[in-house]
Amino acid sequence: MNVNKSLLPLVNPLSKDNPVIVQVLGICSALAVTAKLEPALVMTISVTAVLALANVIISLLRNTIPTSIRIIVQLVVVAALVVIVDQVLKAWNYEVSKALSVFIGLIITNCIIMGRLEAFAMTNRPWASFLDGIGNGLGYGIILVIIAFFRELLGSGTLFGCQVIPQWLYDHGYQNNGMMILPPMALITAACIIWVHRARNKDLQE
């Protein structure tokens, strides 16, 4: 599929250069917040917003930031954005904010965010950096949502907290797989996604 070159920063992270299943970054979030779909979706929105805005800000400042303190400046920008996101989330949905607990704060040290700031925003214009932030945030989020979908469905029989597996199945002996809501199953599910993705993309095979 031919894609306009200017849109590559947005499109590539969705599959070809996905930060989670290709670059193997952000795996900690997949283990921590994917037992349910709602926290995974909120984390996706939060990381995408922080990454896109941080990319733009760093891109605008890239020619004025001394090389010796660039990492400190990047951390300060990300930390400020995370505080804003955390406060908005607490005001908008306090229960989800409690469920995510410290993981919103840990966005500050998310290797995807720091990696994109250093590798892309520091050397590219604001619009391209914005697209790169959106693309990598959504690429990260797609994997989180897929993992959360299977973990919640098979582990709890629900999606977004609503029961989707019919009661008659339970009446006939069906039981939820309790292992699916344990952190190791997030890693195993992610491994399955990586396997399928690489099987379909021969150029990624070593």
From TrEMBL:
Origin: domain of life: Bacteria
The protein's name: NADH:ubiquinone reductase (Na(+)-transporting) subunit D
Origin organism lineage: Bacteria, Pseudomonadati, Bacteroidota, Bacteroidia, Bacteroidales
